[in-house]
Amino acid sequence: MVAEPKRIVVDPGVAERGPTALRIAVGGQLRRLREACGITPQAAGDHIRGSYAKISRLELGRTGFKERDIVDLLALYGVNDAAQREMFVDLALKANEQGWWHRYNDLLPQWFETYLGLEGAARTIRTYEGQLIPGLLQTEDYAAAVVEMGQESNEAARRVELRTRRQEVLDVTGGPMLWAVLDEAVLHRPVGGVDVQRAQIEHLVQMSAKSSVTIQVLSYRSGASAAAGSSFTMLRFAEGDLPDVIYLEQLTTALYLDRWDDVLLYRGVMDRLAIQADTPERSRALMMAAASAL
């Protein structure tokens, strides 16, 4: 029996970042409530007719929530205030809703839907790109040219719309910080033609002025890169118990790495790339020069 009532602290505004972010926030609060009560995951699992594994999935935000389970866990954890219980149950049920990208599910493979959810939930997004401008930084015309390079589709306009819709995450309150390292070759590859490429680089310059965006250029004079030409993205989350996720996109699938050894390896590579690349200020000058040269 819990001696004192427990209070719930979840920012309702996290819902603006999508159901994955909300699911992670709700799960993290459940973990903190359980730990504050000194209740083991096994005991919590037994209480909701489940298991340790179920509690782990709930607390990591890796599964949806059943109202009955949430109500029973809140009672177990001593959350007795009716208004707080109602608010928390409402948040948990909202976390089960489909993300904004669901209306594009006819275009999206399941593995990329997973990424979109994690992207919106991340606290920081660190990415290295050696071939193209990252999707979060693409102009509409550049995105259209990238889509055109891929497999033919009658849904090109919706694919471009999807790419640009993703970028709204950078303007959401509490949204992720983006730190991008771009190989200098990206600035000189005229995707969509010279005019499109120039406008794209000018857009990079504008984006680099945002407080939530850092852009570095890995210039030719830096020599061989620590990434050995392999583009990748690292996602880090506010919840300390959640490991970083390394995202490696391939032609027909993607890899998600979260084993500690893999995370350490890629984190080290990303840190070396950031040191090897020009500073954000110097990178801005490089981008401006590249745009002027076109």
Descriptive account of the structure:
- The chain has 294 residues and is an alpha/beta fold.
- The protein has two domains: 12-94, 434 Repressor (Amino-terminal Domain), CATH 1.10.260.40; 105-293, Endonuclease, Chain A.
- The protein has helices spanning 19-37, 41-47, 52-59, 67-76, 82-94, 110-121, 140-149, 156-166, 185-188, 194-207, 260-276, 280-293; strands at residues 124-129, 177-183, 213-218, 232-236, 245-249, 254-257.
- The chain is elongated and about 65 Å long.
CATH topology of the largest domain: Endonuclease, Chain A
Helix segment tally: 12
Question: What Rg is obtained from the alpha carbons, in whole angstroms?
Answer: 22 Å
Percentage of residues assigned to helices: 40-55%
Give the SSE layout.
Elements lengths: L18 H19 L3 H7 L4 H8 L7 H10 L5 H13 L15 H12 L2 E6 L10 H10 L6 H11 L10 E7 L1 H4 L5 H14 L5 E6 L13 E5 L8 E5 L4 E4 L2 H17 L3 H14 L1
Parallel strand pairs: 1-2, 2-3
Antiparallel strand pairs: 1-4, 4-5, 5-6
What are the defining features of this structure?
6 strands, 2 domains, 11% strand, 434 Repressor (Amino-terminal Domain), elongated, 12 helices
Short note summarizing the structure:
This protein has 294 residues and is an alpha/beta fold.
